[in-house]
Write a structure and sequence with these properties.
By secondary structure, the chain is of the alpha+beta class. It has 17 helices and 19 strands. Bound molecules: flavin-adenine dinucleotide, D-malate and zinc ion.
């Protein structure tokens, strides 16, 4: 056995021995990301059980000059939650701080600790007859802290906005002190709204230990439909029609390519219950007023009449709705089983999505022949997961630049919802204007002057200069 370092000894002195992992197979799940693209080597993993312990850990790490990488469910797709390979960074896992402190069905709030699993928080809100509308395929493992730190999107953004729009209060540690902003207020213009800086900062500015999220009344009726369309332009026409006929009741509008469906059939054994097509759209609508189903049937009728939809089905029960959703939710996992992929989490203005898909396909065919595209995502938000299936010999940077150059030409973003992490540091510097990068560096230096939060030493474009 190797001798524990001073840092490990001080941390073990603070926490119980089982709350500090210094080696062995227990370390592995914390050291590498979900896709195993960023294998790291932590100095150790610490698992505090209170905000006070987090504060003490931060102080000990600062004294020792050690960097900290906050980690929630480690479901992130950008490699932001794992350390580099230096063996000097401490992974601070929030997974023991998982309590739901309070659900207030009248004030429409839920207060939860950072390590609380998103699904657990959704269920607690549901049990009180309320809705926490953040929903993503990783919700059974992703945590409230991770969701806040990444400003997660998911399938309900179209109606309820990104995580940011649902955060009322935060408790954060930018250093060894606790900024307690766990307010439950809808209106609060008393000075800077500093919590916004931490939402989406991916653990680079502070550690989130708890949050107050906004809830909504839970709609009494919901409707889920799967339709096939000829192409993405038809999918956009369907969105317009659905908005005309169902208005603000639409809560999800997801695009799925035939390739995605084939991968899900091959690796998850799931098959769409409608005729095969080139593109599919999964629509969900929800309302507390009666008549949703009738409105949806009428919308489907118009879609067929106007030859926008080729085939389609409305779920007859909750079980059938879950079966339709399973097709969409298994795309990421099925893609991972199929082959290596270069992921792109891009957004372009909504009406530009069809043309973006055409031009990105042409650019790839010319610059990276032999690659296959698995495109799917949140069409209602203009956010497409344009994932490129590659063989081992393919240079990921080349593929990234081909796709991102097309994104840039449409005035889009190289990360709509997954964030920068380790994966997109170089791409961020390439596509964001120098003035915006300078502003980001100014904020980083103000809040983390010694560059101790989230392995930025390994990310030169941020901290150099
Ligand atoms: P982690 O992966 O542990 O961490 C993510 C980042 O946040 C890291 O930079 C980490 O350092 C930081 N962080 C974590 N906890 C804290 C904290 N308490 N304080 C400060 N920083 C912290 N994302 C979407 O936006 N939309 C989707 O639709 C979506 N679908 C997904 C589907 C699948 C199958 C998978 C595997 C992932 C998907 N994701 C999606 C990505 C991921 O689930 C989200 O980014 C999620 O918010 C990450 O939560 P987490 O707890 O796992 O965070
Ligand atoms: C999803 O929406 O399922 C994920 O964000 C996408 C991905 O795996 O690229
Ligand atoms: Zn997504």
């Amino acid at each position: 056995m190797t001798k524990p370092t001073d840092l490990q000894q001080r941390l073990t002195g603070l926490l119980s021995p089982t709350a500090v992992i210094t080696g062995g197979s227990d370390l592995e799940p914390y050291a590498v990301d979900w896709r195993k693209l960023f294998p790291g080597r932590p100095a150790c993993v610490v698992r505090p059980s209170s905000t006070e312990q987090v504060a003490q850990i931060v102080r000990i790490c600062h004294d020792a000059g050690a960097a900290i990488v906050p980690q929630g469910g480690n479901t992130g797709l950008a490699g932001g939650a794992v350390p580099d390979a230096s063996g000097t960074q401490v992974v601070l896992s929030l997974n023991r701080m998982a309590a739901i402190r309070r659900v207030d069905p009248v004030g429409l709030t839920i207060e939860a600790e950072a390590g609380c699993i998103l699904k657990v928080a959704q269920d607690a809100a549901g049990a009180a007859g309320r809705l926490l509308p953040i929903s993503l395929a990783a919700e059974g493992s992703a945590t409230i802290g991770g969701v806040v730190a990444t400003n997660a999107g998911g399938v309900n953004v179209l109606r309820y906005g990104m995580t940011r729009s649902l955060v009322l209060g935060l408790e954060v540690l930018p250093d060894g002190t606790v900024a307690n902003g766990l307010r439950k207020l809808r209106k609060d213009n008393a000075g800077y709204d500093w919590k916004q800086l931490f939402i989406g900062s991916e653990g680079t500015l502070g550690i989130v230990t708890a949050a107050v999220l906004r809830l909504l009344p839970r709609p009494k009726h919901s409707m889920t439909a799967l339709l096939s369309v000829a192409d993405p332009a038809a999918a956009l026409r369907l969105l317009e029609l659905a908005q005309d006929e169902l208005g603000d009741q639409i809560s999800a509008f997801e695009l799925i390519s035939a390739t995605s469906m084939q991968l899900v059939a091959r690796h998850a054994g799931l098959k769409a219950p409608i005729a095969e097509g080139e593109w599919f759209v999964l629509i969900e609508a929800a309302s507390s007023l009666a008549g949703l189903r009738e409105a949806a049937e009428s919308m489907l009728g118009s879609a067929f009449e106007q030859e926008i939809a080729l085939d389609g089905v409305i779920a007859e029960s909750g079980v059938q709705a879950a079966q339709l959703w399973a097709l969409r939710e298994h795309v990421t996992e099925s893609e991972a089983r199929e082959s290596k992929s270069v992921k792109h989490d891009v957004s372009v203005p909504l009406t530009a999505v069809p043309q973006f898909l055409i031009e990105a396909g042409q650019a790839l065919a010319a610059g990276a022949p032999g690659t296959r595209v698995n495109a799917f995502g949140h069409l209602g938000d203009g956010n497409i997961h344009y994932n490129v299936l590659v063989d081992a010999g393919q240079d990921a940077d080349v593929v990234n630049h081909i796709v991102h150059d097309v994104v840039a030409a449409f005035g889009g973003s190289i990360s709509a919802e997954h964030g920068i992490g380790q994966y997109r540091v170089g791409e961020l510097a390439r596509y964001r204007a120098a003035t915006e990068m300078d502003l980001a560096r100014t904020l980083k230096r103000a809040l983390d002057p010694d560059n101790r939060l989230n392995c930025l030493d390994a990310r030169p474009p941020w901290h150099e200069r």
